[in-house]
Amino acid sequence: MRFGVSLAEVMGSDVPVDWSLDIARQVDSLGYDSLWVADHLAVPTGGDADGADYRQHDGVDRARSRPADYEALTMVSALAAITSHVQVGTAVLTLPFRHPAITAKMLAAADLISGGRVVLGVGTGWLRSEFEALGLPDPYYDQRDTVTDEFLLAVKEMWLSTGPSNFTGQHLSFSDVGTFPKPTQRPHPPIVVGGHGREAMIRASRHGTGYLTTAVEPAELAELVGQLRAICERDRRDFGELEVHMLARVSLTESAGPSRPPLTGDVGEIAADLMAYGKAGLEHLIIVPAADAPPDRLESTIATIEAIAADILPAFGGHRTATAEARH
To answer: pTM for this one?
Structure first.
C-alpha cells in the first residue's frame, strides 16, 4: 500500500502559505509516496442554492466566511519545486473551473519542474454557487459530467499532440493551439478520477490511471472496487492498470475501542484497519492528518504525519515499495 498526505486543511488563505511548504518538506523527507492539494476557487459564504452547506459537505466544520484556498495549480508548481521524491497531485481539481489549455500548460510546467512527479486528480465539482460565483455558463453545472469528460479529453489532446492541438466538442472547441513544451512523463502525467458515482468510475475506466474515493468503510470500498472492476471489464480496460485511492482522515491516538471510526485509534487498530482496506482493494491511502485548531495546527499536523511515518509506514513499506516498482 502507498501513502500520501493531503494539505487540504492548511490551504485556506486565512492560513500562512509557509505552513503548506513546511509540511510538504516533512512529507517528502519521511518516506511518503505522494502529496496532494485541494481546489476551491470561490468558496461561498453561505449555503448552496440547492440547500447544501459547504461546512458540512466533507465532514469538516469549516467557517462559512472562509476565503478560497490557495490556487491549486500554483501550489502544485511550488510543491514540485521544493520536494524531491513524492508525487504531487490535485485531490481533486474541479476541471470545469479552468480552460483546458490553462490546466494542461500549468501542469506540464509543474511536471517539468518536478522531473516527472505530477499527478492530475480530477473531479466535476459539486457546489452550484461556486460555479455561479465564477460566472461559468449555466450548462457547466447541470451538465458537469459531460463538461468534465470533454475538458479531460482536451487536456490529453494538448499533452499528446505532436503539433498544434485541435479539439471540437459540445462545450469547447479550439484549433491550432500551441501546447509546448510537453510534460516530462510519457505518454502524460497520471490521471486519477475522483467521485462516488458510476459516471466517475466510467471516466476512470476510459480516461484514467486511477480512481479516488473519499472515506468509506472497508465493506463499502469493496463494493465500489467491484463496480469499478465490472465497468473496466465492460470497457475492455485492464482493471490492473487502475490504482485505487482513498482520501481519509487518520487520527493516531490511544486505543479508541470497538466503536471507533475507521483509521482512528492506536497503531495496532489503525494497522488492522489498513489490512482490511487492503483486502477491499485499497492501494493508495491519502491521509488527511488529524490536527488541532489554530494556532497549534501546524505543529500538530507535523506531529501527526511524523507519528504515522514512524509507527505505521514501516509495517507497509515492503508492500509499498513493491507496488511502486511494479507500476514503474
So the answer is: 0.90
